[in-house]
Amino acid sequence: MPEGVRSIVTNTTPLIALVAATGNLEILRFLYDRVVVPYEVAQEVRAGGRDAFAVEVFERCNWLELIGAPSKLASYLENSLDRGEASVIQAALDHGVKLVCIDEVAGRRVARLSGLRLTGTIGVLIKAFQRGYPVSIPNALDAMRARGIWLGADVVRYALEQARSPIERR
Fold first, then answer.
1. What is the tally of structural domains in the chain?
2. What is the pTM of this model?
3. DSSP readout, 16-85?
4. What is the CATH number of the domain that holds 59?
5. Looking at residues 56-84, what average pLDDT do you find?
C-alpha cells in the first residue's frame, strides 16, 4: 500500500472511545502499521490522571508513535480548532499521513479542507469488524455509552446497519 494508507494520526476522543468500546487499543494496531499521536493529544489523554480508565491502556501501548514535542501550528489551525484537533491535522500534514481519526465536527471539516481523509471512532470499529477483527458493534456502542460517550442516533443506526451481515441488510 502507498505511504499514508496504513498510517493514521489520531485525536484524543477516538483513543478514549476505543478504550471504552473494546478495553484496549489493539483495534488500531490491527488496522494500521503506524498510529501517530501528537504531543498535545497524549497530554489530553494523560490529563485524566492515572485513575482515568484510558490512561493506563494508553501508556502500555508502546507501539504508538508519540510525537515528543508540541506542534508548531499553522495559524489557521490554531485559530479555528482546539489544540488536540489542530495538532492532529498539523502532524498529518507534517508527516505525510493522509488519514486522520477525528470525531468532532469542526475538526473533521478543517481536516477535509486541508486535503486529508477522515475516519472516526465508529469508522474504525466498522472497518475492523468488516476485516474480521473480533468486535461486537452493539456491545462496543453499549460500552461507550456506559462510559458517558455520547453517540448520535444517526451514528448508532449507521453502525448497527454496517454490523449486520450483507444478507440481513437486504
1. 1
2. 0.91
3. HHHHHHHSSSHHHHHH-SEEEE-HHHHHHHHTT-TTSHHHHHHHH-TTSEE--S-----HHHHTTS-HHH
4. 3.40.50.1010
5. 95
